[in-house]
Amino acid sequence: MAKLFGRRKFLGMTGAAAGAVGAASLTSGGWPGAGKTYASVWGGPGFGGPRQDGGVDWQEIDRQHKAAVDAFLANIGKDEGKFWGNKAEFTMSDDGYKVFDIVCEETDWETTAGSVFPAFTYNGTVPGPEIHVTEGDKVRVNVTNKMQESTGVHFHGVHVPNAVDGVPFITQPAIEPGTTFTYEFECVNTGSHMYHSHHNAAEQVVRGLMGAFIIHPKDASRDPEVSADYVMVLNDSGLGYTINGKSFPDTQPIIAKKGDRIRVRFMNEGLMIHPMHLHGMPSVVFARDGFNLPAPFTCDTFTVGPGERWDVLVDCVNPGVWAWHCHILTHAESRAGLHGMTTALVVQEE
Ligand SMILES: [Cu+2]
């Protein structure tokens, strides 16, 4: 090491690098990424502009943080009911099936003001609408492909006959552009499941072809009694870091009353792990992948891996606005403020 890269030479290089950035002040100075902007070193949303004059413009950092929180608060309720509980409609067929019509399209999708991505959508939204059925239901899902490429729908976690497992060329032909494929099955296993593309999936799923598929027990007493039931679909790679298709500050908070017990179903449709962390109150994790745990456990951070579903209960005992976010912090906060996988639990006084 010393011979190849002596101290003198090292100092010389450091000097050259410092000189190169000099008065432009567009870099981070002497830190390991010297010569590059924060944005080019770290990438990702929110790293934005350079440090100024080798120092930190802390007033600007504070201003951006506050602006994001102000936008989040001003945005509460302005989602037209799409963020929580965007449920798929169905009709009953003469032969006793719940019939869901799902249309796949290529559309633009805005995750937060000014961040518009080319997306794939089920019925025009990311994630697709939540499909809610009851144990024992017979379900028919008509999937119409209006995209420029083929697709297939896998009902992730749902126990279905092999022929409707949704993997093109293994169990069915690809659903080609302009065609419709029909899936029929009986819903036998309760819990929090998903539906998503299983064709060009690393692109189609993270760009939007995914959603919740929830099978409620026929006997409702088998589920915990709750004040409200929410789904948080996590996604990362195709449309940025999102919860239910939106990035902070365009995510919506959960609003509860003191004393409420809420259920939240976390589902990860992305390609990364997301340790989700709620401030102020613990979560009781009671089911994973639709199976009730033999021993529910209490924690404040739990990691939702790709494909996993975690069901938790939160007793809303502490009034206030409590941050709720992924704890891989590059997914949630930067010098430009909170972003991505951040929302809040608002507990109001009774
Ligand atoms: Cu994350």
Strand order of the largest sheet: 11-10-13-18-15-16
How many distinct beta strands?
A: 22
Radius of gyration from the CA trace?
24 Å
Q: Return the domain count.
A: 2
Task: Give the N-terminus to C-terminus distance in angstroms.
Answer: 67 Å
SS content category: mainly beta
Q: Report the CATH superfamily of the largest domain.
A: Cupredoxins -  blue copper proteins
CATH topology of the largest domain: Immunoglobulin-like
- Unreliable stretches (pLDDT < 50, length at least 5) are 1-46
Helix fraction bin: 10-25%
The major pleated sheet works out as: 6 strands, mixed
- Mean pLDDT, as a whole number? 88
Strand content: 35-45%
How is the secondary structure organized here?
Blueprint: H1 7-21, H2 38-42, H3 58-74, E1 91-92, E2 97-112, E3 115-122, E4 131-134, E5 138-145, E6 153-156, E7 180-186, E8 191-197, H4 201-204, E9 210-216, E10 228-235, E11 242-243, E12 254-257, E13 261-268, E14 274-278, E15 283-288, E16 291-299, E17 301-304, E18 309-315, E19 320-326, E20 333-334, E21 337-338, E22 342-348
Parallel strand pairs: 2-5, 4-9, 10-13, 12-22
Antiparallel strand pairs: 1-2, 2-3, 5-7, 6-8, 8-9, 10-11, 13-18, 14-17, 14-19, 15-16, 15-18, 19-22, 20-21
The structure holds copper (II) ion.
